[in-house]
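Q: Is it fine to ask for two folds in a single conversation?
A: Yes, each is treated on its own. Send the first.
Q: Here.
A: Result:
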Amino acid sequence: MRSLRTEVDLYFGGHPTALAHFLEPKQNLYLHAQDLREFYHCFRIGEQRRNRNILQAYFRPHEVQHLKAFKKELWQEEEIVAALDTLAMGDTNAVAFGQVSHLSLLLRTKEFVLEDFFGLRMRPSRKRWKAGLVIDDLLVLEARSEEDDPEEVRSKIEKVREAYTEYGLPRHPDKAVEGELRGEFWGGDMDGEAGHIRPSLKRLAPLCNILLEIVRIGHCSVGLLEVISGSLISAFQFRRRLMSAMNEIYAAQRGRAKQEIVKFSPELKTELLVIAGFLPAAIIDMRLRPAPKIVASDASNSKEAAVEAEVSPKFMAEMQRHSLQKGLWNRLLSPAAAYLKEREKLQAEEELPGETYTQHPLWEEATEVLQFKQYGKIKKVRGRRHINLGEVRAGLAAEKKISQELPDHYYMRLQDSQVSLACMTKGRSSSQAINKELKKSIPTVVGANVRGYYGFIRSKSNPADDPTRKQPVRKPTRLPPSWWTEAEDGRFEELDKFLEENLVHPTQVSELPDPKELLADVQLDGRSSKDVKKERGRRLRKERISKQEETDEAVDRLQEGSKAVDKDFKNASEQRSLLRSTEAENTEAERAAEEEAEKQRAEKVADSTKEGASSEETRQRLEGHLAGRKRGAMGSSD
């Protein structure tokens, strides 16, 4: 069932980067939360799943007579086994069933639609409130100013409570949060007045203590280092660039068994202490303002440069919704691939070992209708360096200039390097050389409090390519479309139509199921596993018989068709034979006619020759006669 994937698609916990919820200057962030009690125990199951939930223990009747499920007829049994008559945590598809059923209930209230929820493949909605769902926990984050109606979200929460009561789902009243400025949810602490969300201090404080303790001891097992690494990654999801500081901790684990003890090197001790200092800086600042410019950067084998173009802050706030969200595994290109990349002969799909990015139509429009200009100085490269390092350095140089001009802002940067975009979005790289460059940028990101959003453009569309090739920055190729002008003013209806036409609207790229599928009732299958197997056997036998009958019918049709083809072939052969005999007779007649005509021509030639010979003989006799007469006349005169 396709909707079962929704349990992943609508999962926000553990991926705070999906929370692109920025506040206006007069707004605060308010938390609304509902938690269901004993959620999995509210499910009804069939006999098949119930038999699988049998506990591995045997009981005497008197040992379980106090339970409500105990029946009088059980006194006759010597031993009794217990089975869980509900959905068990960790059971097959239990999380999927829980997530989808809870989501279906919320959609049935008609207070929410799928676009209202945070999701890994979804874009945040433009509404001032957004919802999140993780199995039994419902969360609503509301950005509200004094002018906004506080009852809008409260009425939605009230409708949800009524639905919980109607479907018999008990709530945790003590865990409910009603429009609070501060709260804790899904491993994070929220301060709605400051506009910050950070990892829970209840987790960070023990983690920091463990870091300091193992540094003091100087030894640690590989298994513990793996656990610490995972905890640090979870914390640094709130500011991904901090993950680039984790190099030695991974090197110490590489190629070693979990139970092996690692002696800390001075570099590893220093790194762990630095990481402990970075933990308080792992926050999401929702009071960042949109920068009034879009930046593009690029690098060649000799130069690194960036260009900028002006956009309205309202449009920038919309652009970040369409930026890259997923960081991809990345590494430096091989020497051969780097050589092709420098000469713009490497396909974008060949830059990363696995999944790659594609160009969004919005960025293609931006490069064609905006007038870009040089941003900062063009850096000349002395000596050889890897092209990917140049691309990363060009992007970080542009970021540093933005941090100096516009601290406490978020911005949009375009680039044609898959490797650079992958490491920027992910926060780190498997390449130590790239990580070294990213690590140098941490003071800029933290100190100036800037946040970058990224988009991929192809090399031919990148205006930053011009200054790296000693070319003037290109001019716009056409005027902005009407939807672009409206988007600059904060009106996005025409933009939505453009996105839908190009199949990149947030609802189209989310890969979520049709809401109708989530609203449909699912019939409970109460059959036992034995009944299911019997029915499956009968169905398979019917399918085999049906397939055999279809095969027999197909063979009969094939044989009939073969006979028809043979008959047609025989008829065609006879027709060809008749045609050949007719053609032979015609050819013979034509040959005889030609021979007769040739004979007649030969006779005419012979007759003409004969007549010519007779005429020649007559002429000779006449000339002899005349010559004789002439000689006689000459004799008479003598």
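Q: Second one now.
A: Result:
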Amino acid sequence: MIKRFFLFTILSLCIVTLQAQINLFINAKVDNIPVLGDTIKVCKDKAIQFDAYGVYTPGVDLIEADSSSFYWYFGDQSSNTGKANDTIQKSYKNGGGYYLIVCVRDTDQIEACARKYIQVSTDPDFEDTKTLPDSIICPGSSFILDGNVKPKEWLYNLPDTIAYDEPKVIDELRFYSGFLQQGVFPLDMQIDSVEMIQSICISMEHSNQKDVELKLTCPSGESIILKEKNAGNDNVFMGTPIDNDLGDVGTAMNYCFSPDPVLGTMTSVSNTSSTLPEGIYTASESFTNLIGCRVVGNWTLEANDNTLTDNGFIFGWSIIFHPDMIPEPKWKFQNSYIKDSCYWYGDSVEIFQVRSQNGSQVNVSSSTLPLDSVNMYNYTFSVKDNFGCRQNEVIIAEVTAANFEVPEGGDAPVDALFEDLTHWAATTTWDFGDMQTGDGDTITHTYTEKGDYKITMTSTDINGCMDTDTATITITFPSSEFDVYNVFTPNGDNVNDLFIVKAKQGADKKLSDLMRYFECYIYNNMGHRVHVIKSAEEAENGWDGNVRENGGKASPGIYYCIIKAKGKDGREYKEAMFFHIFY
């Protein structure tokens, strides 16, 4: 009996209850094809199917998916949580790397996490993809499409800050809840020291600090009240709010909370301030509340306002972890590009040829057929990367006609300024329509004669492609009509001493500006010619009454003037008129 009892005792002491654990696994499929390994390489917007399953250890029993909760963190600041959601689909809009994490918690609160690394094809550098020589083309010309692709390196940056373009309102009807998702840390890392969190900072404004509660919750559910509500002085501002309850946004201040604070709690500071100053505050609860928190997953900030009056806005917030926690080196990758997969396509593309490849940099040139029509032509340079994703860059080639700016015409003389506006022109020649020519992209030409002149500009590009543009400029003259004095008194009193012919009253030009030629023959009443005016200039200067034969003054009486003239406006004159000389 003693031996049996002793044996029983020994056996009893050797029985140990082992705590069950979960090993969690993720299977992934793209296009229903399994993806092996921990890294999944996909194109943007490509759906990936994830299946999570867990196995208890010791043993081989599968967890009950229907009764377990799955927490999916997709690495792009989106997540999905619920029971029985062990299978899920996800696609990514933007290129880059993402830490996908799923955690499971069964009915006994046993938890495990697993991770996949998602690499989404990044946009390449197409900066040197262009047309040669230029993207604006002479009609009838061909050109080279020069495709160049270089990779851009993607580098992981810890998502520790949210900043909103439009601040989020908090009032009695609208609470704020936002999270920062962490995926880079070890899956089993927990907060085991308050120094692991250096600070939580919130950019905000509110018209009454007493109404506001701020709470931070870690991924595994532990939480800390950063600022309690219904405490401290009433009507103390946070930031610089617009206190009208109309929803107008004020100016934010930055409020931080840290295990190593500079200020007391917001409650205590509010008792001595009308506005809470920016600074590093003591949290209402101890940071030791967060001991045991799982680090990977969603860190959630909540802000609520429990009164009908007053409101505020959250502009953004951050959580700063101790730098020693962050794994090094940072995750980075870049795509490469497959030489034989690169090509051009578009309007009138003739051939394409891969010119060179330098590592993942590819240069592809394509020539085009001549383009005669003035139009916009689209060309696409297409490359395939090492993920099998197509990346395209569109180049627009614009075929434009030669063109120039037509100056206004007007009354001669006109100094007309011509400017070639043709983008592709290398040289420019001009025909001004008056038997005169010139060259240069900008030139001035003077028109002295009335008429409609057809200007022809010829532009030539560096390859010899030519195109012309024409326009008409109209040069005019005012009326050449004139007035003749019918009385003059050449008595030397400086009043009406000259017989003058001048441009018709109201004309803004001299008679000499209006006439091509002008002659005036003056006769006395006996029919003897006493003077000849031989030009418009002489007519403007006037006849002083001196008779040409003897140089004496003409006698008083009636005199006749025979005018023969032609104006620059094309009008011809053959007129006879009389005038009087008095003394």
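Q: Anything structural to flag on that second result?
A: Two points. Residues 193 and 254 are 25 Å apart (CA to CA). Residues 161-325 form a domain with the Jelly Rolls fold (CATH 2.60.120.260).
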